[in-house]
Amino acid sequence: MFAVHDFLKSAQTGAVAVAAALLLVTSAKAQSDPLPSWNDTAPKAAIVSFVEKVTKEGSPDFVPEPERIAVFDNDGTLWVEHPMYTQLAFALDRVKAEAAAHPEWKDKQPFKAVLEGDMKALAAAGEKGLVELIMETHADMTHDEFQKVVSEWIATARDPKFNKPYTELVYQPMLELLAYLRANGFKTFIVSGGGIEFVRPWAEQVYGVPPEQVVGSSIKTQFQMRDGTPTLFRLPQVNFIDDKAGKPVGINAHIGRRPIAAFGNSDGDLEMLQWTTMTGGSVRFGMLIHHTDADREYAYDRKSEFGRLDKALDAAAINNWTVVDMKADWKEIFLEK
Amino acid sequence: MFAVHDFLKSAQTGAVAVAAALLLVTSAKAQSDPLPSWNDTAPKAAIVSFVEKVTKEGSPDFVPEPERIAVFDNDGTLWVEHPMYTQLAFALDRVKAEAAAHPEWKDKQPFKAVLEGDMKALAAAGEKGLVELIMETHADMTHDEFQKVVSEWIATARDPKFNKPYTELVYQPMLELLAYLRANGFKTFIVSGGGIEFVRPWAEQVYGVPPEQVVGSSIKTQFQMRDGTPTLFRLPQVNFIDDKAGKPVGINAHIGRRPIAAFGNSDGDLEMLQWTTMTGGSVRFGMLIHHTDADREYAYDRKSEFGRLDKALDAAAINNWTVVDMKADWKEIFLEK
Fold first, then answer.
1. N or C: which end of chain A has fewer CB within 10 A?
2. What is the tens place of the pLDDT at every residue in B46-94?
3. Are B72 and B288 in contact (CB under 8 A)?
4. Which candidate, B75, B86, B70, places its Cα nearest to that of B263?
5. What are φ and ψ of residue A45, in 5° steps?
6. What are the pLDDT digits (tens) for A272-326?
7. B214 has which bridge partners?
């Protein structure tokens, strides 16, 4: 959060000198310990050991810089995913914002449920209802219009439990990890089950990940000349679901190389970690974030109705993936401002 | 060709010192003239003027480095596309190589036409026949297997007219342009109508463009565990056609920012150049390579049955795109070895 986010914000408002000073402080600190929000437990040691192996020239485990690809799930891995995916909170807010233009929604599910705050009825609408919500709120506009709507929403919306902007509910240890990997020649990608165009408008500022390094689910777009202006128009049709077995497909489509490190937190990340680590060849790194901290964040795993970590937890034991116990392994979860 | 290709080849065989020396010579030369294979005509001046504008800090046309995205068509823009797309030559060779395992092809079009070298019958099979050929030769194998087949073929196949490997039929002026843009903070992407997985295995060595910066057409892939090993399996179904109106869609899907410079050579690149340049805002650059040199390469445009440059040539005049006359504007076309 601190370094990238604040630096960019400051630079934008002209306070470059202050931000540069902050950055110097941050990097001085980073030299002594690149992962200060991690406790000195096994996961931190495993990360550092992996990075030292693949970056040591002449070592049998050395990996040339262009092949140092690391992939990160977003929801629950880089930021909070409870009590609902942030993108769903966005969709619900959009329904409310657009309700006046859609009087028919008062009597039509799942919109009625959203407008009445009836989460039980919304849940009953199931995946079909969810897709309807997404299509109504994410399509039938140009790409530029959608980017604007997302940017405005993310700048103002707040998480109800923590009463903070969602972009401040990113995990400080993971921001340090992203920066540490990049400082060691890695290219860091986000591989989200969420919408690629929902993540891109703010990923560079918040995570230091540029739009071309974001992979995600998508709806179809179409090139159209409108009043002599070329536009990309968002169609209400699913194009690609970047979740579960879709993640390796999305990774290959966008990156074209197999990653050497993958970070996730749920069964939706299982195939991504398998694809990354089960190669029988060179050294690889797989990590799962286990949400164990009901006090500072949330605690959930196998029996959760949401963001379930079950099969992937079993696979971690078999495949030697590192499991982070948030409560025990993270000194800080969020950066206090 | 020279710098990147030879450097990588040499480095791989251990002759690092020689390659490094070559690189020093190349960069010394580049300092005096970054585009030595371009004649001092209008297109070269237009390129240099554009790059100087967008890289000059404080200038109203300045573009921050992360936004310096340049997109290049491949066939006919970076390498020779006549008398047929190289990928088609690959498909025909694959049919011949696999014919023994497919005795039924002897009597089945379009395979019969390929095996008999009957190009007229092949043309008569049309687009449907072409898709059949592609599916038979590009699918029903794992991603890794296909990469291996492409790599082996590109290392040995030769263009019949020039009697050279296809990877030596890349345009030296365009290699210089790619390097010049990168030296000025641009990220260079290939946006090909051809198959993304046909270009990726050699694009880094030949063009200096890594796999994650290649956009192209694709077939569907599926994640499968095979004998306990995760694989991506190539299915005989079209996923995406990255041509014409598909190019802006592919660009947005992969890059997520609008390019500021686009380079093409045919009507297949029209929408890509429109999407890049027609924004009404900041300074942009569009360029078309016009094949005018029947002696050194080929001459074709509006009436060509293949790789037609017609509507895009009209649009160039309206939109102020730079048109390269290969015969007049390029001092060298290929690097003589």
1. C
2. 999 999 999 999 999 999 999 999 999 999 999 999 989 999 999 999 9
3. no
4. B70
5. -60, -40
6. 999 999 987 789 999 999 999 999 999 999 988 766 999 999 999 999 999 999 9
7. B190
How many residue contacts between A and B have a Cβ separation below 8 Å?
A: 94
Among A8, A252, A272, the strongest candidate for a mutation testing the B interface, having the largest count of B CBs within 10 A, is A252
pLDDT at residue B154 greater than cutoff 80: yes
Query: Helices A270-277 & A246-254, crossing angle to 10 degrees?
Result: 50
CB A36 within 8 A of CB A2: no
Phi first, then psi: give them for residue A38, nearest 5 degrees: -100, 135
Alpha-carbon gap, residue A57 to B146, rounded angstroms: 30
State the pLDDT at residue A26.
53
Task: Provide the shortest C-alpha distance from residue A149 to chain B (in Å).
Answer: 16
Q: What are phi and psi of B237, to 5 degrees?
A: -140, 135
Closest-CA distance, A105 to chain B, in angstroms, reads 31
Cα A259 from Cα A255, distance rounded (Å): 9
Long-range contact list for B146-155, CB < 8 A, 24+ apart?
Answer: B146/B197, B146/B234, B147/B197, B147/B200, B147/B201, B149/B94, B150/B90, B150/B197, B150/B198, B150/B201, B150/B202, B151/B201, B151/B202, B153/B90, B153/B93, B153/B94, B154/B90, B154/B201, B154/B202
Domain with residues B40-82+164-329, CATH architecture: 3-Layer(aba) Sandwich (3.40)
Angle in degrees, CA B249, B250, B253, rounded to 5: 85
Quote the Cα angle for A196-A197-A202, to 5°: 100
In chain B, DSSP finds a helix count (H) and a strand count (E) of 14, 10
Please write the tens of the pLDDT for every residue from A322-333: 999 999 999 999
Residue listed under structure tokens 């986000």: A190
Q: What is the pLDDT of residue B8?
A: 35
Q: What Å distances lie between residue B149 and B47, B93, B142, CA to CA?
A: 37, 11, 11
Over residues A144-155, the pLDDT tens digits come to 999 999 999 999
| CATH code of the domain made up of A39-83+164-329 | 3.40.50.1000
Closest CB from A143, A225, A257 relative to B252: A143
DSSP bridge partners of B261 = B70, B285
Q: What is the ipTM of this complex?
A: 0.90
Q: Which residue has the tokens 């596309």?
A: B81
